[in-house]
Amino acid sequence: MTAVLQRVKKAAVSVDGRVTGACEHGFFILLGVFEGDTAEDARLLAEKIAKLRVFEDENGKMNRSINDVGGSALVVSQFTLCANYSHGNRPDFLCAAKPGAANELYEYFSSLLRTLVKGGVGNGVFGADMQIEAHCDGPVTIVMESDKLKTKKG
To answer: Which strand ranges, in their side-by-side order, compose the sheet holding 18-32?
Structure first.
């Protein structure tokens, strides 16, 4: 599972001209779900994101979490994060989870984040044609992969 986090002043996602999710001062998160990803991947990412200290403290140092600043999040499903671009000029998305499984993990990730981020979590609409407006802050952009958060044994 891959999450692209952007620290934002505000962000909103619309479908057919109607806002379906928004956030203020927090994270805009694009979430890519790969074949083989599990609920554990979703949990690891959600917990790390909620604790990530990339918001400025009183000294201008990135030292506060989203909860420390009373922030919120907007999560949008993004299967194109699963692109295989190693051959030719047209990427394939064969590594992406099937829509049913991807939606289930996207919803699960969002529900976990809702329990961890006190300022609220908005969502896009899975599989829809979405328009996104984001006012980046910094900019601060971080790519997280659940595989890098797993404890290695041995």
So the answer is: 121-123, 72-77, 18-32, 2-15, 131-145
pLDDT at 147 over 50: yes
Rg (CA), the chain: 15
For domain 2-145, give the CATH number: 3.50.80.10
Q: What is the pTM of this model?
A: 0.94
Residue ranges per structural domain of the chain = 2-145
CA–CA distance, 8 with 89 (Å, rounded to integer): 32
Contact between 106 and 126 under an 8 Å Cβ cutoff? The reply is yes
Cα–Cα distance measured from residue 97 to residue 81, given in angstroms and rounded to the nearest whole number:
11
Given a cut of 50, whether residue 83 has pLDDT beyond it is yes
Dig out the tokens for 97 from the structure.
């989870």
